[in-house]
Each structure stands twice: as C-alpha cells, then as structure tokens.
Amino acid sequence: MTGSLISFEQAEGTVLSTVQVGPIHSVPLRAALGHVLAEPIACDVDQPPFDRAMMDGYALRAADVATAPCTLIVVGEAAAGGGYDQSLRPGESIQINTGAPVPKGCDCVVPVEQTQRTGSEVLVQSVPKQGQHIGLRAAYAKAGMIVLEEGCQLGPGQIAVAASAGVSSVPVYRRPTVAILATGSELVEPSCKPTGSQIRDSNRYVLDALVRQAGCRPVDLGTVRDDRDQLCERIRQGLGCDFLCISGGVSMGQYDYVPGVLKACGVDIKFHKVAIKPGKPVLFGAAKEAGYAFGLPGNPVSVFVTFWILVRPALMAFQGAAAKRPRFVSAQLTGAVKATGDRQTYQPAYVRADDEGRLEVEPLVWHGSGNPLALAQANALIVANSNAPAGEVGDSVFVVLLDLP
Length: 405
Ligand code: AMP
Ligand code: MG
Hints:
Blueprint: H1 8-18, E1 24-28, E2 41-42, E3 52-53, E4 57-60, E5 70-78, E6 92-96, E7 108-111, E8 115-118, E9 121-124, E10 134-135, E11 146-148, H2 156-164, E12 169-173, E13 177-183, E14 187-188, E15 199-200, H3 203-213, E16 217-224, H4 228-238, E17 243-247, H5 258-264, E18 267-272, E19 276-277, E20 283-287, E21 292-296, H6 300-318, E22 327-333, E23 344-353, E24 359-363, E25 380-384, E26 396-401
Parallel strand pairs: 5-6, 13-16, 13-17, 14-15, 17-21, 19-23, 22-24
Antiparallel strand pairs: 1-12, 2-11, 3-10, 4-6, 4-7, 5-9, 8-9, 18-20, 20-21, 22-26, 23-24, 23-25, 25-26
The protein binds adenosine monophosphate and magnesium ion.
C-alpha cells in the first residue's frame, strides 16, 4: 500500500507549480551557452539580406542557355563582400563566388564544375534551371520575425541564430545557486579512510557535479552530524541560496531531523514521501522569504535519481525553461527487469543504439540504492510504473536519458 504517499506526477506537479521563475539579466553571447532565453529574439534584417550565390561559378540568365553546351561572354566578377553593380545583358555572364550578391539581370548560377573558361568566354556545359543556386533574400526569415522563443535553452545552434539576428548580448534568466549539505554522523571526507561505522561522503560530490552539469552554481555547506542545533544553523545558512539540497536525515529514523528542522526554520513542506523507488522519503518545501529546499534520502542512488527527476526540473523551472523534464525515449530491453511493487521504479541502465540505429537499454546490476557502483555505468534510468509486470528481453520500456559526458 502506498498509504499517504503521493504519486510522482503529483510531486512533479507540485515542484513545477511552486518554483517561481528567477530574475532576468543580460549576458554576452559568448557566455550564454546553456542559459535560458528570457525574451524572444527577432532578426533585425532579412535573412539572407540579399539574393546571393550559393555556389562558385557563373551567374547568368537561364534563358540564354536553352541548349548546352553554349558559350557566353564573361563581363565581370562578383566576390563575397563585393558585387557587380551593372545589369547583365543577354549573352553575358559574371564569374561569381559563394556568398556574393547575384547581379541584376541574372536568374541562376551555374557551378564552376559545369563550365569551361577560355579567356573572356565561358562554355556552359549544362542547361540551368531558373533560380538554381541562388539563395533569395528573406528566404530564411523576414526582418522582424521571431527566430528564438522565450524559454529556449541556448545551445550552439541557438547561439548561431542569435548572432545572425544581430544580438551580441542576450536577456536570460539567472541560473540559481544551490547550497549542498550532507547530513550524517557516520560521514567522513573521501580523503579519510573510513574506520568502524564510518562511510565516505559521496553525496556532496555527486550533487556538486549534478548541479554544475545543470549549469547552476553549487555552494558547498559541508557535512553536518545528526545534531539538531548544528543542522539548524547550517540549514539557515543554506536557505540564503536559491535552492538547498540536503542529503540524508529525511526518513523515519530517530536521528532523521531534517523535516522537523526545516519546518522550524520556516520552510513550508509541500510534500514528504513520494511513491517512487528509490527515493521514497524525498521532501520538498519552500522557505517563507525565498529559496526552496529538497531533502534527499541519503543512499547514493536515491540522491542521483531524485536529483534527476525532481531537483533538476525545479532548477529548469527557476530558469524559465520551456523544457523542464528530462528527456524520455522508448528502448528495447537487452536484459530482464523485475515486476514492480507499489511504487514507480527507476533503475540505472545503459542506453545504446543497435546496428540498425534503434535504441536498446541494458538494465545494470545494482544491489539496491546504497550501492553507488551502478552509477559509474549508467547513462539512463529505466522507468516502470507501479505494479508493472516483469520485463523480458525485447520488450519496450520507457527510459529517462541522462545528459552525461
Ligand atoms: P539516511 O537517509 O540518512 O537514513 O541515510 C541512508 C543511507 O545512506 C545510510 O546508510 C547512510 O550512511 C548513507 N548515506 C547518507 N549520507 C551519505 C553520503 N553523503 N554519502 C554516502 N552515503 C550516505
Ligand atoms: Mg542519516
């Protein structure tokens, strides 16, 4: 029984409706990679701005070459960045380069490979079609047309479009700061060899990397013992950031102080416990003045999964991104998966294309959410709904693609 647990869809809906879009600022185009556009961008000129040659060759009138081969006089040349300012007369042609304006009177370009030049004459060896190899003015976009929508995330392609639209700095949503705090009296730094009941802290490091990969700024708050007062002090500090991600201390154990301390620090808990596996005890809340808090269960795979499916969408929502959810695809299983219980289940997996380019997914062996080793191979998560039957080799399953190096 899921009892009072909310579904993943409810949890995601709550996160996305609670997180408000952050402030806007302007960044130079060179620094804009990964940012989300806060206003639409329109181009200020026609694209292309003039009729231009798309090949190196000869600009001419198609009607002059009704049959091939056919000889025309070469009366001038047009280079990129220059041009030929007179109008072409019948029987004439202009030597032209890719990117040069097509001279008046010309209605096609014959590629140089289909010609033979002798002195001031050119032998045209193929019959051209009207308009061939000419990029017409405004064929791509008219001046004033919106070429990038608000909410789009700027990748290299979008940056090329912004540059061609005449933009040198772009209005974007500020990327959030994310405070990271690991809780647990058992935790030691990776540089320490654990003794007795100690465990190396890996969550602060995986969260740091995940936050950076999402383009946001991590603020390391270190580790804190399972001590209410210390936790309270560190949480207050973390709430100064846009987001606070706490690992551990969020379950039902006697020393799991995180929910209570968050409440005491003025955080309005929006949900605590979701019907997902791993990650059931996950918590989300909003601080009174500013800032949002996530409490992530301490097991490394739980941290990884809950970050991808709940924290990352929140970071994208703060940045006003139109696409907030991770990417889902369907892929064929190359290994069996177990039937699920009463929770939606996320299993670390490896997606690749088969010989025909179809996606296949290999479920990775993992021994529960405490084992971080499966994360070293995972580039995806297989998603199975609650009470789903076992999956066989060849079955199609839903997969979350993780944008990992
Ligand atoms: P908790 O959510 O605090 O009950 O922790 C669940 C499990 O995750 C326990 O076995 C913890 O020792 C382990 N754990 C908690 N925090 C970390 C961490 N930062 N790095 C690695 N393991 C952790
Ligand atoms: Mg703990």
